[in-house]
Write a structure and sequence with these properties.
heterodimer; A: 201 residues; mainly alpha; globular; B: 305 residues; alpha+beta; Sulfite Oxidase, Chain A, domain 2; eight-stranded mixed sheet; five-stranded mixed sheet; 13 strands
Chain lengths: 201, 305
């Protein structure tokens, strides 16, 4: 049931499902149905979606350790790229709609406000991940180097959740839940590493 | 003066107008089930618009009542609108205590029969860098302070919001320390711009906007304008305020709108007026510099933010 083939078959459906929210929000934005402060709403929704997708990619890796779910890992790349897609939309909403390309202001904002700094670094770290996502790139870089580059997903996840945590003014429940999940997933990886049978010398 | 030149309505006339509005509201609802609920004041906007600055436009009743920060009803902007249905703003009393001649509890109706209800169209600037233009009805806080008869030793006024977790679901969670508290220096409280508002757009104050009575201090960030007030205390020392207690590095006691004093979370240089696409420059003291700048001439505003 959880064969590579079936996971691959589910990809088109998954693709549409994950793409759909962005199309819906764009439509609602254009038709004026995103509430009283549509730019803020759009930015919040896009950012939250991106953070959730990043967490899902981490979960997929963990789930793929469970034998019957091994093949789920074939979905990881697509979801990772979608995370990047939503981060890009989130960031361009901030640049274009929120601040109208006022680059001087934006640069100051990024440097002065810790939560924006976190978000921005997280975005920068995602760029090498997204741009080395093809099979061809894995081959060219070699799996070892490629894997090293992709460890960047850990600081990306932590920074992105901190970006959200600092933004929330009072009720931090939701960002704390996300941070908790990320920490658990990271702890699982560390645990796995430490208990890994040593290779023969 | 543009902001103060408001139409002064005796309370009785005001009540009659309100009745009329209620009547037309009911018939409007009977006539059409949909969005024309707010049509009644649309036809009579001139009452409010004549007090507007040329660069300002009134925000709609819908905008003002569906996008609120009122954590007593939840932390999302739409929560106050969605979760405030069970709140009962009547009967209502306000307890006056601290440094006053005689501590006492006033019935809201008694207060209202002793004051002049006026229309005041004010800009409201939230610390989150958005703003609105709102036609309030209310009376000057100074009128109530006169009724309260504070002692000359009273230098500050503290305000306390009602605590009713059964009617205010946000209070069932300790997001901030309940009840919400705010405060003003005595001269700020006595300033003619400072009002206690009991209505907006000619409607009784909606629950989500701080029914039945709330403070409006238009030159300060919105969180200073405490809602649903049940207690007013006169003190000789600066009172603790809710947001300052929660995050003193972000929120000060004064919280004057100031584009030059940075906030760690939001740039205060610009703001988004609700309903507008592009940001606009934030004005010193939210544009009320002429009326209030003198209150702070000896104060380092970067320190006392």
């Amino acid at each position: 049931m959880f064969s590579t083939r079936n996971f691959n078959r589910s990809k088109p459906v998954l693709f549409i499902l994950i793409l759909f929210p962005s199309l819906l929000w764009a439509y609602q934005f254009v038709t004026g149905n995103l509430g009283v402060n549509p730019i803020e709403k759009l930015m919040d929704e896009l950012g939250l979606m991106a953070l959730r997708l990043i967490i899902i990619t981490l979960m997929i890796t963990t789930l793929s350790n469970i034998k019957p779910l091994k093949s789920i890992v074939v979905l990881r790349r697509m979801i990772g790229l979608f995370a990047f897609y939503y981060v890009c939309l989130h960031f361009s909403t901030y640049i274009v709609l929120d601040h109208f390309l006022d680059m001087q202001f934006i640069i100051q904002d990024i440097m002065k406000r810790p939560f924006i700094t976190f978000g921005f670094i997280s975005f920068l770290f995602l760029i090498p991940l997204a741009s080395t996502s093809t099979n061809n790139m894995i081959k060219r870089l070699g799996f070892k180097l490629w894997k090293k580059i992709h460890y960047l997903i850990y600081p990306v996840a932590i920074l992105a959740s901190m970006h959200f945590y600092v933004l929330v003014r009072a009720d931090k429940t939701e960002p704390v839940i996300y941070m908790g999940i990320i920490i658990l997933l990271l702890l699982h990886r560390i645990f796995k590493r430490l208990t890994r049978p040593q290779l023969a010398q | 003066m543009k902001i103060l030149g408001s139409e002064i309505t005796p309370y009785k006339t005001y009540l009659n107008r309100r009745k009329f509005i209620k009547g037309s509201l009911a018939s409007a609802m009977l006539a059409t089930v949909t969005s024309s609920v707010f049509a009644n004041h649309d036809s009579d906007l001139s009452i409010y618009t004549k007090n507007l600055n040329e660069n300002d436009k009134l925000n709609s009743y819908e905008e003002i009542t569906t996008y609120n920060n009122f954590y007593e009803f939840g932390t999302h902007k739409k929560h106050p609108h969605l979760n405030s249905g069970n709140f009962k703003p009547r009967p209502w009393t306000i307890k006056i205590d601290g440094l006053v001649k005689k501590p006492q509890t006033f019935d809201l109706e008694k207060i209202l029969s002793n004051v002049t209800i006026e229309d005041r169209v004010y800009r409201l600037r939230c610390v989150e860098a958005w703003s609105m233009v709102i036609p309030w009805q209310g009376f000057q806080l100074s009128e109530l302070i006169k009724m309260a008869e504070p002692l000359s030793s009273a230098k500050y006024v503290q305000f306390v919001t009602v605590f009713r977790p059964e009617e205010m679901p946000g209070q069932q969670k300790r997001t901030i320390i309940w009840p919400y508290r705010e405060g003003l220096r005595m001269d700020e409280a006595m300033n003619p711009l400072t009002i206690l508002a009991t209505g907006l757009y000619g409607h009784e104050m909606p629950n989500q906007n701080g029914a039945p009575i709330r403070l409006v201090v238009p030159w300060k960030y919105g969180f200073k304008s405490i809602k649903s007030i049940v207690e007013i205390r006169f003190l000789d020392t600066q009172p603790e305020t809710s947001w300052e207690t929660l995050a003193p590095w972000e929120y000060g006691f004064y919280a004057n709108v100031n584009p030059n004093v940075n906030h760690p979370r939001w740039s205060q240089g610009t703001e988004r007026r609700i309903g507008e696409f592009k940001r606009r420059e934030t004005l010193m003291f939210n544009g009320y510099e002429k009326e209030v700048a003198h209150l702070y001439k000896d104060l380092d505003l970067t320190k006392f933010y």
